[in-house]
Amino acid sequence: MPELTLKQRGSIWVGEFRAMASPCELHVELGSRKRATQLAQIAFTEAMRIEAAFSRYRDDNTVHRINTGAGLPVRVGDEMARMLDFADMSYQLSNGLFDITSGVLRNAWQFDGSDRLPSAESVSSLLAHVGWGRVSWDNPLFTLPQGMQIDFGGIAKEYAVDRVVSLLREQCSAPFMVNFGGDLHAAGAPAATGFWAVGIEAVDQQTNAVETIQLHRGALCTSGDARRYLIKDGVRYGHVLDPTTGWPVVDAPSSVTVAGNTCTEAGILSTLALLKGDQAEHFLDEQGVTYWCQRS
Questions:
Q1: Most CB within 10 Å of its CB: which of 31, 43, 87, 191?
Q2: Per-residue pLDDT band at 208 (split at 50, 70, 90)
Q3: Strand (E) positions, the chain?
Q4: Mean pLDDT over residues 89-98, rounded?
Q5: pTM score
Q6: How far is CA 18 from CA 47, 50, 161, 269, 294, in A?
Q7: At residue 260, what are phi and psi to the nearest 5 degrees?
Q8: Beta strands 235-238 and 255-260, pairing class
């Protein structure tokens, strides 16, 4: 069972827990331990709720009902409908590169740093079960063809950050920052320093951070394959898969960090940049956003 802990660092209280397979933190500048505990509990409870609602590893949520629906329509609630709408919009805007039905490809790919590439046949067989264009979405009914799955792994964590930020803003005016596995959002800057110091991890892991950002408010999201890859015959295969081929995107950056107004916005842009491969920087320039891109 996940546990919430609280510690003090100077004028900042830090609530820590694990959710969505990631270390999660709330940093808040407050004098009261009791109040900091209350706010950390709000963050913890909401993160756990969203994980329960959108995890593909559970058998008691709507994702499970959809994935085991045997081709029959499943009625979904308002929150799931909004997530499906976002998935559809992202698929359309990316010309099919962002596809929440592509998670099934994980059955062929194990990005553990080894040299074990899947066979072309195994990838091809799974690719037959990928394709958002084959689903039927007519709110509130969602129909997934038999053999296909949906996976919100590329959306849920960023959504969770934004939800927690929204809830905390209703409860306090103190400066705080939510950080779920490196996807973070700051609401105001601490008086002690005037900013939150956020490091962008170096992909070569020779240094702790390639750059330290002084964040006052807003979101930062990072997508990358620094820790998830395969190497075969000197060729590095990153974990970002092209859903149209089933194989890793060619010439993708190792890491992309994007600044945005929300984590949902910054997260989808960083992911799409990786999917653009050698056009990542050009894509981000076209969006007019602030970003940091690392290539091996």
A1: 43
A2: low
A3: 5-9, 12-19, 22-29, 74-75, 136-138, 141-143, 176-180, 183-187, 196-200, 211-215, 218-224, 229-232, 235-238, 255-260, 291-294
A4: 95
A5: 0.93
A6: 9, 13, 13, 25, 27
A7: -155, 175
A8: unpaired
